[in-house]
Design goal:
The chain has a single domain, classed as SCP2 sterol-binding domain (Nonspecific Lipid-transfer Protein, Chain A, 2-Layer Sandwich). The protein has 173 residues and is of the alpha+beta class. Helices cover 45% and strands 17% of the residues. Strands 3-2-1-4-5 form a five-stranded mixed sheet. It is globular. It starts with 24 loop residues before the first helix and ends with a helix. α3 crosses α7 and α6 packs antiparallel against α7. InterPro entries: SCP2_sterol-bd_dom, SCP2_sterol-bd_dom_sf. Pfam families: SCP2.
Length: 173
C-alpha cells in the first residue's frame, strides 16, 4: 500500500480523498443530472450506439468513494445519480475501478480493453451492454469529462486539470 501522506493513492485508488467526509448525496444529484443532460444534448448519437442497451441500468463503482453511480442512458428517461454504497441499486451491469481509471475512460485517455484485461477494471453482469457503452464513449468526438467540466466554467476546467494531473502522478508511481 502506498503512503497517503504523500498524496499518492492507497490500495483503493482513492488516496487522500478517503479521509474527506462523504458529500451529502442530495447535493450531488442535481449536478449529476445536469451533467447527464449536457452530455446527452451534445452527443445524441451515444444513444443510437447503445442500441437495445440504452435502457440498461449500469452501476459505476469508483472504488474508495462513499457512493456508487447509477446510469440509465435512456434518452426518454435519463438517469445519472449517486447512491450510497451500502444501498447499491440492482443493475444489469457493474463497472468498478479506481476513480482515476474511470475518469480516464470518460476523458478518452485510456483503453478500456487494457484496463479490463489488466484487471484494473472489473465488469460483472451484462458484458455486452458494457461493451456497447464503452464503444459509444469511444466514438465521442472530444472528451465527455471536458464537456462536464465546461458546465462549471473556469473552476470546472481547473478541477478537471487538477484531477488529470493527479491521475498522471498516480499512473507514474
Amino acid at each position: 500500500m502506498t503512503e497517503i501522506a504523500h498524496g499518492k493513492p492507497d490500495a483503493t485508488g482513492a488516496g487522500p480523498l478517503r479521509f474527506l467526509p462523504p458529500p451529502p448525496l442530495f447535493l450531488l444529484q442535481p449536478i449529476l443530472a445536469r451533467v447527464a443532460r449536457r452530455v446527452a444534448g451534445l452527443h445524441p448519437s451515444l444513444f443510437d450506439r447503445l442500441g437495445p442497451h440504452r435502457t440498461a441500468c449500469f452501476v459505476i463503482d469508483p472504488r474508495g468513494l462513499p457512493f456508487v453511480l447509477l446510469l440509465v442512458p435512456d434518452p426518454e428517461n435519463l438517469v445519472f445519480r449517486a447512491e450510497p454504497r451500502r444501498r447499491e441499486p440492482q443493475s444489469d451491469a457493474r463497472i468498478a475501478g479506481n476513480f482515476f481509471d474511470l475518469l480516464a475512460l470518460v476523458d478518452g485517455n485510456s483503453d478500456g480493453d487494457a484496463l479490463f484485461f489488466s484487471r484494473d477494471l472489473d465488469i460483472t453482469g451484462n458484458t455486452e451492454a458494457v461493451v456497447c457503452l464503452r464503444n459509444a464513449l469511444d466514438d465521442v468526438e472530444g472528451s465527455i469529462a471536458e464537456d462536464a467540466a465546461g458546465l462549471f466554467g473556469a473552476p470546472g476546467r481547473a478541477i478537471l486539470a487538477a484531477l488529470r494531473r493527479a491521475g498522471d502522478r498516480r499512473g507514474g508511481s
